[in-house]
Design a protein that fits this description.
alpha+beta; Chorismate lyase; Arc Repressor Mutant, subunit A; 32% helix
């Protein structure tokens, strides 16, 4: 087996290849550890870490006393906690996947009433609209529509928006994006969105409507992210204490003002 700079990554990739090639069919049990270690020429510790990585991705599962089963063909799976203010790129990278961007479009358009209200612009005032597909290891996982005010010196060209928007905004304004208020809505994929995400029209999506502000409190971005429901698992942490109750009331006041 050819070895890369990270042996665990190499072993996990080789096992994924064998699953795709049918050597380990979906529904079958993987060979035992001793056989796999001998075949792959690796230690038990390396093998176990590689198998654990596949288990996190839902490709395999372990059953006590029965073995490790192949559950599905390899793809991508992203688990995120909505409590953390992470960009889409950071969510993807946090799972050890390579974030990417494709089908980038940038234009000046009159915003929707919802976007205009979030950004505090007039309904007919043009804003910068960026549309793009976000990828994880080359797989399309999110279709994003991002709205930003004009007149703040932000780039006009499409090429500027091929990377992380949070990083671009932090560089441009010399301060990070301080937080975001997110609303999650289920929605069936339209023909256009389905085509961009390589899914079927009508498939259920998780749609995140988010208002983002800089560290100094200025609202700088309104985004709509069409998230593949079969790829993303989103958790929300809930706590019960006086501080969180006060914070929750502040958030509700912010929602009421939108």
């Amino acid at each position: 087996m050819r070895r890369g700079p990270n042996l665990v990554d190499t072993v996990a990739a080789e096992m994924e290849r064998r699953i795709l090639d049918g050597a380990y069919p979906v529904g079958s049990t993987l060979p035992n550890e001793a056989a796999l270690c001998a075949d792959l020429e690796v230690s038990r510790a390396t093998l176990r870490e590689a198998v654990a990585r596949l288990q996190v991705l839902g490709v395999v599962s372990r059953e006590q006393g029965k073995g490790t089963f192949v559950r599905r063909e390899p793809g991508v799976s992203i688990v995120t906690l909505l409590e953390a203010n992470l960009s889409i790129s950071e969510m993807i990278a946090s799972m050890g996947l390579e974030p990417g961007t494709s089908e980038v479009e940038a234009a000046h358009e009159a915003p929707s009433a919802e976007a205009a209200s979030a950004l505090g612009t007039g309904p007919g005032d043009p804003v910068i609209v960026v549309r793009r597909v976000r990828t994880a290891n080359g797989h399309p996982v999110v279709y994003s529509e991002d709205f930003m005010p004009r007149g703040l010196g932000l780039p006009e060209g499409t090429s500027a928006y091929e990377g992380s928007l949070y990083e671009l905004l932090a560089r441009h304004f010399d301060q990070p994006v301080g937080g975001a208020l997110a609303q999650i809505r289920p929605q069936a994929a339209t023909v256009e969105v389905a085509g961009r995400l390589h899914i079927s029209p009508g498939d259920l999506l998780l749609v995140l409507h988010q208002t983002h502000h800089l560290e100094d409190g200025r609202t700088i971005l309104y985004s709509i992210d069409y998230v593949r429901n079969d790829v993303f698992t989103i958790y929300v942490r809930r706590t019960m204490n006086e501080a969180s109750d006060q914070e929750g009331r502040a958030v509700m006041a912010e929602i009421d003002s939108l």
